[in-house]
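Entry:
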Amino acid sequence: MFIALLYTVAPAVGAMARLNIITTIYPNGTAAEPISYDARPDWMRNWEQTGLLRFEDVNGDGLIQYYNAANPDFAAIAEERGWTGNEMVTFNQDILVLANPEIAQLPGWVIALIAAGGLAAALSTAAGLLLAISSAISHDLIKSVFNPGISEKGELLAARISMAFAIALATYLGLNPPGFAAQVVALAFGLAASSLFPAIMMGIFSKRMNSTGAIVGMLVGLLSTVLYIFTYLGWFFLPGTNMLPNTPDNWLFGISPLSFGTVGAILNFAAAYLTLAFTKEAPAEIQELVESIRVPRGAGGAQAH
């Protein structure tokens, strides 16, 4: 329930955050009457110190211009008054999570609670993912595939090394994010949708699906999504390594890299079932296992009361 609440109210929170920003910069309710930079609200002064928010007085009038240039009403005002464009030259969207309570003038303890909750959520998620990554590499990959005779000490060492590499990679992506927070989350969910989701769904609803089909489907879905993302956002998100500009005009069929996970999932399903057509279906014991999960052993039929 709380997860559903979190994701369903996120757009409303984003809209209210933007409204709070605009109404503090334009307290009179119109873009024709901006406040002077010297009279800027306290939240702007505080966040300017982080470098994530920066104002540049382009036309030298001392006023903060922050408006939608595509709006014909604002464009007419800008032309009349000699405004040259938005002067909030740096506005990192990630700050809104922590800045919005301050912008809305909520009590300090509310801001501290939000900051503590965000930090706790980040640390708990990171810890769980690090454990999953290290165990997957050391046990599922090294011990189960490459070196079944590895000792427990060697397996533990492999887990620690893989965890160190994961931390280094996460640190790099944290310092050089491929986008703001919502975009990074969308990329993560897209990769999960193109790789894990179809395999889980086929494992639940298809007793015939075999391991070969599931693996081929996961590889096709994951590789197609990763290649599409890297084409527009750069190889491993390294700046300047993208092969095409990340603009709607260059996207394939207008599909954003953030939304390609759905296409990857479809390719995953198609590749898995195509592979299944040329390979043997899952062994009988696996089909019985799936059936036993659906209907627990010993369960009787439905009874009328």
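The CA atoms of residues 138 and 244 lie 37 Å apart.
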